[in-house]
C-alpha cells in the first residue's frame, strides 16, 4: 500500500514530480481502469478515459491540496471523465437506441469473456441512467460503503441508498418475466 | 418471482446468487505494464508543446515592445507630433504581440488527438 503522504510531498516538489507521478500511475491504474471499464464497457473507450484521467490529474496537480485522499481525488476525476464520455457518446448514437445496446456492444468487444447470462446481466445494468448505474456498480461490484460513496460523489447517503434501491429493483424486474 | 414481494437486500442477494459479482471483462496482454510509459510520454509531449507556445508568445511580445519603443524614441528625437499612421503602426504591433489568453488556454486544455 503506497504511502500517500510521501507521494503527495514528492508530487508537490517540481524536481520529483514526474517520477512521483509515474509511481502514482502504476499504483492506481488498475482500480481506476475497472471503475471506468464498468461504466464505458468497451476496452478501447476505457483506455481513452483512463489516459485522459491521468492527463487531467497531471494538469490539476497544483490544485490538489491533500484535503482528501489522493485515491478519492483520482476516482472523482475518473468518474467525471467516464460520465462525460458516456454523454458525448449518447449525442452521437441515434435516438431509437434500444435496451439491448449494452449487450450488443459487449458481443462485438473481443475483451468480453462472459457468456449469454452475463451479457444479459450487463444489458439489464445498461438500462439504468448513468449516475444510477454508477451507484449500482460501486455498491454491487465494489461493495463500497455508503459513507465512502457519499464522500466520493458528494451526494447524501439517503440519496445514494434510494438510488441503489431503484437500481436493484429495476434490474430484478428485467428478469422477472423470465422466472 | 415478483420484485415487490422482496426488499432491496433480498433482491440484491438474488442477483448475486444468479450473476455473481465478477465482471467478465478482459484486457489486452501487457496493457497495464505499458500504460505508465504511454501516459508519461503524452505528458512530456504536452510540456514540449507548451514551451514552444510560450517561447513564441514571449518573442512576439518582445518584438511588439521593441517596435512600439522604437516609434516613441524616434518621435521624441524628431520632435514630430505623432501622426495617425504612427499610432496605427504601434497599435498593430501591439495587437500582433498580444497574447490571446483565451486561445492559449483552450489550446492547452483541448483533448488530445
Structural notes for this entry:
The complex is a heterodimer of chains A (179) and B (113). With 179 residues, chain A is mainly alpha-helical. Chain A has nine helices and no strands. Chain A has helices spanning 4-12, 17-40, 43-60, 70-92, 101-108, 116-126, 130-141, 146-153, 157-176. Chain B is mainly α. Chain B has a domain at 51-109. Chain B has four helices and no strands. Chain B has helices spanning 8-19, 31-78, 84-97, 101-109. The longest helix of chain B is centred in the middle third of the chain and has 48 residues, at 31-78. In chain B, 7% of the residues are buried. The model of chain B has no long low-confidence stretch (mean pLDDT 76). The chains are: A mainly alpha (179), B mainly alpha (113). At the A-B interface, helix 2, helix 3, helix 6 and helix 9 of A face helix 1 and helix 2 of B.
Short description:
The complex is a heterodimer of chains A (179) and B (113). Chain A has 179 residues and is mostly helical.
Number of helices of chain A: 9
Summarize the amount of helix of chain A as a percent range: over 70%
State the assembly state of the protein chains: heterodimer
Distance between the termini of chain B: 50 Å
Task: Please mark out the parts of chain B with pLDDT under 50 across 5 or more consecutive residues, or reply none.
Answer: none
Interface with most residues: A-B, 42 and 32 residues
The class by helix and strand makeup of chain A works out as mainly alpha
Question: In CATH terms, what is the architecture of the domain at 1-92 in chain A?
Answer: Orthogonal Bundle
Overall helicity of chain B: over 70%
* Span of the ends, CA to CA of chain A: 44 Å
- Amount of beta strand of chain A: under 5%
Helices and strands of chain B, in N-to-C order?
HHHH
